[in-house]
Amino acid sequence: MGPVSEPAKPSVGIVETRIATVFGDGDPMVTRSGGILERVDVAYETYGTLNADHSNAVYICHALTGDAHAAGFHEGDDRPGWWDNIIGPGRPIDTDRWFVVCSNILGGCQGTTGPASVNPATGEPYALDFPLLHMEDFVEVHRRLARHLGIEKFAAVVGGSLGGMQVLQWALSYPAEVGRAVVIAASSRLTAQNIAFSAVGRSAIMRDSGFHDGRFLTAGTAPRKGLAVARMMAHITYLSEEAFEEKFGRDAQRGELSVDFGVDFAVESYLEYQGERFLSRFDALSYLYLTRVMDYFDPFADPAALERQIADPSRFLLISFDTDWRFSTAHSRRIVRHLEGARIPTSFREIRSPWGHDSFLLDLPDYHATVAAFLTRAAEELR
Predict the structure, then answer these.
(1) Chain segment 12-39, per-residue pLDDT in tens
(2) Which terminal CB of the chain, N or C, has fewer other CB atoms within 10 Å?
(3) Cβ atoms of residues 112 and 145 within 8 Å
(4) Is 62 an annotated catalytic residue?
């Protein structure tokens, strides 16, 4: 059972995912690690209408397993995009006011170039020949898509979890392109515990007999068991203990406990379902690459990062959730301390929610009202 919501506001309706080539035709992408991608395609969606001077654009950065389909419905689907409750007419990210852009991240597996894409030099999937990525690489691809769309500056860039990290990197690297930055349930530097969870997930994938040293797509296999286990373990970190207790407690899956090594508890069945469902929509290689980017992220280690912001400050909103133990409020407060220490305009709010890290995906009144108010002020500044 999730939070109780008010009647749904209108959706953005039927949408389609488009593809743009943002690097190619003799203009390759050189990643921060020195890798070269001769061509980069990006899957993206837009909602709302871009105004005459292109000043009403908002960019959405997705989290680890998200994609470009943030709002509305694809033809024939009965479920909307992953952030539909916050994007749309009259919603906090109001498409009657804003032109909203959301793209699939570099290294992803939902239409954007990633390790499962074909390497033009070999005719086979890149696999582990794909270059290691950094948060700056994600931002560079976002910026190229912005140019493709004719947008030089976003009124706001918004994201949760890994999406929030991208927002922070973009605002610190190119403050002139980000009017307002909304960083939700995110971190500027992972703790040892955060890194440990991701390390175990990657290990489960890479030790699976179907992994074939990363060449499983060519071999016709897949590390299905390892990827499912990685998702199961990660999903535990997305919910609070309070949420697990309310959803499942110690309930038996089939009426009574049978005392064996099968799926006996309801929570075990839930995690099995999450793992199996994940296999149909995500690639194991993308999981390896994207989680590793998070491990190395540490933007405040660059002394010039805050200097760039001081010279041309964005306005920041930081939001955390009190039961989020994946990226606890301490992570948000660390970002706030750095920003406020440099006298960068910063607002911060911790939201009460029993649902843990996944709260950023939910329709929580205080949370949505906070985002709506921050973006309303942005709209007023454009008048």
Answers:
(1) 999 999 999 999 999 999 999 999 999 9
(2) C
(3) no
(4) no
Q: Which of 111, 216, 156 is nearest to 371 (CA)?
A: 156
From 286, 324, 332, 338, the catalytic residue: 324
Inter-residue contact 332 to 318 (CB < 8 Å): yes
**368 a catalytic residue:** no
3-state secondary structure the chain: CCCCCCCCCCCCCECCCEEEEEEECCECEECCCCCEECCEEEEEEEECCCCCCCCCEEEEECCCCCCCCCCCECCCCCCCCCCCCCEECCCCEECCCCEEEEECCCCCCCCCCCCCCEECCCCEECHHHCCCCCHHHHHHHHHHHHHHCCCCCEEEEEEECHHHHHHHHHHHHCHHHEEEEEEECCCCCCCHHHHHHHHHHHHHHHCCCCCHHHCHHHHCCCCHHHHHHHHHHHHHHHCCHHHHHHHCCCCECCCCCCCCCCCCEHHHHHHHHHHHHHHCCCCHHHHHHHHHHHHHCCHHHCHHHHHHHHHCCCEEEEEEECCCCCCCHHHHHHHHHHHHHCCCCEEEEEECCCCHHHHHHCCCHHHHHHHHHHHHHHHHHHC
- Residue pair 106/41 in contact (Cβ under 8 Å)? The answer is no
Q: What is the mean pLDDT of residues 115-130?
A: 96
Catalytic site residue from 62, 338, 357, 368: 357
Pair of tokens at residue 52? 């005459």
Report pLDDT digits (tens) over 172-226. 999 999 999 999 999 999 999 999 999 999 999 999 999 999 999 999 999 999 9
For helices 192-206 and 284-296, give the axis angle rounded to 10 degrees: 160
Tell me whether residue 25 is one of the annotated catalytic residues. no
